[in-house]
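Handout for the seminar on molecular recognition.
Each group receives one record of this type.
Step one: identify the two inputs.
Step two: read the structure output and locate the region that could contact zinc ion.
Step three: write two sentences on what you found, then compare them with the reference statements printed after the record.
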Amino acid sequence: MPDPLLITVAPTGAETSKADCPQLPTTLEELVQTAVDCEAAGAAMIHIHIRDDEHQPTLDAVRLRETVVAVREATDLIVQLSSGGSVHDGFPERLKVVDAEPDAISLTMGTTNFGDDVFSNPWPFVTQLYQLSLEREIVPEFELFDLGQVAALSRLLDKFGLPYGGRVHVDLVMGVPGGMPGTTDALVAATQMLPAATTSWSATGIGRSTLDVMLASLSKGGHLRVGMEDVLTISRGVPVESNRQLVERAVEIGALVQRPPMTTGQARELLQVKQR
Ligand code: KMH
Ligand code: ZN
C-alpha cells in the first residue's frame, strides 16, 4: 500500500519583500492563483500569510477572512492561517487570527531567535492560543523550531489534552538562524522526542537546508512543507519561479520513494479538520 505524502505549501511568509522577489504571491489574486496551481500540482494544505496593499505583512481581520473565503471557493485545500505573522505582530492580533475561521492555524511552541529578531511565543500566549483553537474547533499545526519546543508540546498536551479532532500534527521548521539546524541528525533527534500522541509530522528546511531536510523527512516517513516562505532558490543561485515549481519538485522526489501526493480528502481525514 502506498503511503501518501502530505504536501503543504507555504507560498508567501512574512519575511521576503515583493521588491526583492516579484514572483512572491502577495495580492489576494496572486495567492488564490497560487493555491489553485499548487493544488493541481499535488499540495493538500496551504499555510497562509497575507500582505497589505503595499505588500507588507498584515494580520488585518477583514483581509484574513476574505482570504479564507476566496481560497476555499477556489480550491479544496486545507486552509491554514499563520498565527505567527511577522516578528513585529503583537499577541492580540495573533490571537484574533482564529476569528477568520480557518480550518487550521500554525501554533509555535516557544520563543526562537529569528535571524537578528525574536519570534516571541511565551508559554501563556501558547496556552491561550491553544485553548482558543479548541474552543473554535480549529486544528493546530504545531510548529517546532527547536528541541525545547518538542518538549513544550508534550507539556501542552499533558496539561490541556488533545487538539480539536484528536490528531496531533507537527511541522518541524529547521534551519532558521536561531533554531535547530536543517540537518538529518537534528531531524532524527526531534522526531525521536515527539510526544507519543503525535499522529503525523512534516518538516521543512529553510534556505539551503531545504533538500537535506526533505530527504531526511522522507527517509523517516514524514511529510513535507515546501514554498517560497522557506526557500527562494531552486538550485544554487537560481531563483524559484513559482510555488508550483516547489510543489512539483516535492511530488517528483516523493514519487522516487513511492509516496504519491495525498489528496485533499485524505489530508482532511488525516488531520480531522472540521467540515465548514
Ligand atoms: N514569520 C515568522 C516570524 C508561523 O507562520 O506560524 C513566523 C512564522 C511561523 O512564519
Ligand atoms: Zn509561516
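Reference statements: The pocket of zinc ion (ligand 2) is lined by residues 10, 13, 47, 49, 82, 84, 106, 229 (CB under 6 Å). Residues 74 and 265 are 15 Å apart (CA to CA).
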